[in-house]
């Protein structure tokens, strides 16, 4: 199952590009504008260094969250000796894969509504962003990116359910790491490249193929879980 989850998580990040642009495009622009100038240095490499630091921080937060929920589910299962709890979590993960596939295919948008649940947590985290409004060093960009990683996002929450079902911290972290890597092309691209990527993932055939593949992953996950229950 972990192979399906890793590939599926990467695909969600990659094909969620349009969602990424909508959720984080303004934030990326803000971060880009806050990058200090460096006379005498190559502009593109200087910008890229800071943007990579932002995104490394963001993906680190994703991996930490995946490890946290994956490890917690394993610990709770051992602590309370719940029979078949991991199988039931895999059923949940399969359902969330299917819902995410429907979202990417633009058939049903329930996943987007889940983002509202994270606004309560973001209310307490967002004030920290003010401390990084003037980025001067890459380590500050890294810290800002780690805060950015907790921005409410339905796709992140959906993928986190797969980390819960993984049943251990390492696999939970790997799933979220693959998701984060999948988002990199969208959040590192700029100008024409960003528009080209957005246009590509919006093509009906691409959306349906990617969403359909995720739905198949979800059905496969449900099938394995149901067979284990029987």
From TrEMBL:
Domain Urease accessory protein UreH-like transmembrane: from-to ranges:
9-219
Q: Does the keyword Membrane apply?
A: yes
| Residues spanning the membrane | 85-105, 141-160, 172-193, 205-226
Q: Which residues form a coiled coil?
A: none
Could you tell me the keywords of this UniProt record?
A: Membrane, Transmembrane, Transmembrane helix
Transmembrane helix among keywords: yes
Name the domain of life this protein comes from. Answer: Bacteria
Against Pfam families, the record matches this protein to:
DsbD_2
The protein depicted here goes by the name Urease accessory protein UreH-like transmembrane domain-containing protein
The organism encoding this protein is Shewanella denitrificans (strain OS217 / ATCC BAA-1090 / DSM 15013)
